[in-house]
Structures are given as structure tokens and as C-alpha cells.
Design a protein that fits this description.
Layout (H helix, E strand, L loop, with lengths): L3 E4 L2 E4 L4 E7 L8 E7 L6 E7 L5 E3 L7 E6 L4 E6 L8 E8 L13 E2 L3 E6 L1
Length: 124
């Protein structure tokens, strides 16, 4: 069973930056797209960003556009989420996901594999 392993979460002050990483436990695992979602306490899980494996096209939630950047390292089969200008409202558990057979890859149902989540806390 493939697992997605996330790293890079932590505590940062508002205006700071963090970079999250995600890699599959099986190096040869491939999916059509990988994405990041987040869930804040008392709220539903929400889409953050996605990237297509082959062409590298990306999409972002409006709340993170211009501040977050998703990228991929195809050689190492790793996806990153660079988060800049962080705000307290970005505080959440961030989940990496991988999916195939979807369309826009902006909905959680389009993803087949999920990481365990990594906590990001932004203090004011």
C-alpha cells in the first residue's frame, strides 16, 4: 500500500514562510496529479493547490494565490508547497494527496491517496 509522507510543517510568525514536502513511500508510484488540502479546527477540509505530473500545470485556491507555490521534482518524485506571507488564517493541518482519473483535481474525491497530515501554525 502506497503511503504519502509529508514533512516541513511547524510554527511560524505571520509574514513568514514554510515549505512542505510530500513523497510516496514507493518510489515508482505515479499519479496524474498531486495536491495539497488543509483542514482548520472546526472547519471542513479545503483545497489549496494542485499540480499535474506530466505537464506541470497548476491551480490554486483564491485564498492562497500569489502567496503559495506548488512545484514538483520529477526525478525524486516529490511535490512541494512553498508558503510565503503566511497569515494566522493559514493555520491548519495540511494534507498531501495523489490522484488519477480526475478532471480538475480541486475536489478531495478526485484523490485516491492521502498523507497523514502536517501541522502548520501561524502566530500573529
Amino acid at each position: 500500500q502506497v503511503q504519502l509522507v509529508e514533512s516541513g510543517g511547524g510554527l511560524v510568525q505571520a509574514g513568514g514562510s514554510l515549505r512542505l514536502s510530500c513523497a510516496p513511500s514507493v518510489r515508482t508510484f505515479r499519479s496524474s496529479a498531486m495536491g495539497w488540502f488543509r483542514q482548520a479546527p472546526g472547519k471542513e477540509r479545503e483545497f489549496v493547490a494542485t499540480i499535474r505530473r506530466r505537464e506541470g500545470s497548476t491551480a490554486y485556491a483564491d485564498s492562497v494565490k500569489g502567496r503559495f507555490t506548488i512545484s514538483r521534482d520529477t526525478a525524486n518524485n516529490t511535490v512541494y508547497l512553498q508558503m510565503n506571507s503566511l497569515k494566522p488564517e493559514d493555520t491548519a493541518v495540511y494534507y498531501c494527496a495523489a490522484g488519477s482519473g480526475g478532471y480538475y483535481y480541486m475536489e478531495s474525491v478526485e484523490y485516491n491517496y492521502w498523507g497523514q497530515g502536517t501541522q502548520v501554525t501561524v502566530s500573529s
